[in-house]
Design a protein that fits this description.
With 248 residues, the chain is α/β, with parallel strands linked by helices. It has eleven helices and eight strands. The structure holds NADP nicotinamide-adenine-dinucleotide phosphate.
C-alpha cells in the first residue's frame, strides 16, 4: 500500500473529482477556462530538463517564460522553442506564470521559497520536477530531505501553501521529445499531489505533450518520484499503477 491515506478506491475518487473540478479550479484564471487554452507557464529552471519541458509546452501552444539568473544566456533555447517562448529573470517568470514549474537543483528550492514563496503559493499549480540527488546535492542534504518525508513534503514545507504536483521526475531531458506520443503505448508519468484542482491542471498539461499522467497518491508519495526508486525510469500507465500499489 502506498503511504498515503488514499486507498485505490479513494484515489479513483480523487481522479474523478479532479476531472470534474477543472472548471471550478480555473475560475480565477481565465486562461485556464478550457483545458486546451493557452496557459502562461513560468519555468523556474531552464537547464536540460526545464528547457526540454518548456520547449514541449511552447510547441503545444502555451506561452512559456524560461528563466535564469542570467536570462541573456537563454537566447538559443528561446529560438529553438519558437514564437511562444521568451526569457526572463526568475522573478519575471514567477510573475508571468499562471502556473510555475520548478526544475532546479533541489538545494535551490529553499531559497526560491524564501524569495518568491507567496507569489508561487498563489498559483493554481506548481509542478515540482526537482529531485534531491546525493551525488549532486550531498548525502547529508538528501538525508535531511528524507527526514522531512522526502521530496514533495519537503517542497511543500519550503513553499508553504503551494499547490504542488510532482511530475516528470524520472524522465530524462533527452527523452521528453523522443517519448512524446510514443507509438504503441504512451509513456506514463507518475504524479503525486494533494490538491485536486492542481492535479487536474497538471494532468491536462502532461497529456498535451504526449504522456499519460498517473496519480499515485498524495505528496507523501513524492519521495518515490525520483530516479532510483521502482517508479523511476519509463513505464506504461498500467505498469505505474502496479508498481505504486506495492509501495508504502
Ligand atoms: N536532467 C534530467 O534529465 C532530469 C530529469 C528529471 C528531473 N530532473 C531534475 O530537474 C532539476 C534540474 O535538472 P537539470 O538537469 O535540468 O539541471 P541543469 O541543466 O543544471 O539546470 C538547472 C537550472 O536550475 C537553475 N537554477 C539553479 N539554481 C537556481 C536558483 N537558486 N534559483 C533559480 N534558478 C536556479 C539554473 O539556472 P541558472 O541559469 O540561473 O544557473 C538552471 O536553469 C534537478 O532537480 C534534477 O534532479 C532532471
Amino acid at each position: 500500500m502506498p503511504d498515503h491515506p488514499a486507498t485505490d478506491a479513494s484515489r479513483r475518487t480523487i481522479l474523478q473529482f479532479a476531472g470534474a473540478a477543472l472548471a471550478t479550479a480555473v475560475a480565477p484564471f481565465p486562461a485556464l477556462a478550457q483545458a486546451t487554452a493557452s496557459l502562461k507557464i513560468g519555468m523556474v529552471g531552464s537547464g536540460r530538463e526545464g528547457g526540454a519541458l518548456g520547449t514541449a509546452w511552447a510547441k503545444a501552444g502555451h506561452q512559456v517564460m524560461f528563466s535564469s539568473r542570467h536570462p541573456e544566456e537563454l537566447k538559443s533555447l528561446v529560438e529553438t522553442a519558437g514564437p511562444k517562448a521568451q526569457a526572463g529573470t526568475v522573478a519575471q517568470a514567477v510573475a508571468f506564470g499562471d502556473i510555475v514549474v520548478l526544475v532546479v537543483p533541489y538545494t535551490a528550492i529553499e531559497q526560491i521559497g524564501k524569495e518568491y514563496g507567496p507569489a508561487v503559493a498563489a498559483k493554481v499549480l506548481v509542478i515540482d520536477v526537482s529531485n534531491p540527488i546525493p551525488r549532486r546535492d550531498g548525502e547529508e542534504f538528501v538525508k535531511s530531505i528524507n527526514d522531512q518525508g522526502g521530496a514533495g513534503l519537503a517542497t511543500a514545507k519550503m513553499i508553504p501553501g503551494a499547490k504542488i504536483v510532482r511530475a516528470f521526475n524520472a524522465i530524462g531531458y533527452a527523452k521528453i521529445a523522443e517519448d512524446a506520443n510514443r507509438a504503441g503505448g504512451l509513456v506514463g508519468v507518475p504524479i503525486a499531489g494533494d490538491d485536486p484542482k492542481a492535479i487536474a491542471v497538471a494532468s491536462d498539461l502532461i497529456k498535451e505533450i504526449g504522456f499519460e499522467p498517473v496519480l499515485v497518491g498524495g505528496l507523501a508519495m513524492g519521495k518515490y518520484l525520483v530516479p532510483g526508486t521502482p517508479l523511476g525510469g519509463e513505464h506504461t500507465a498500467a505498469e505505474i499503477k502496479q508498481i505504486a500499489a506495492t509501495l508504502h
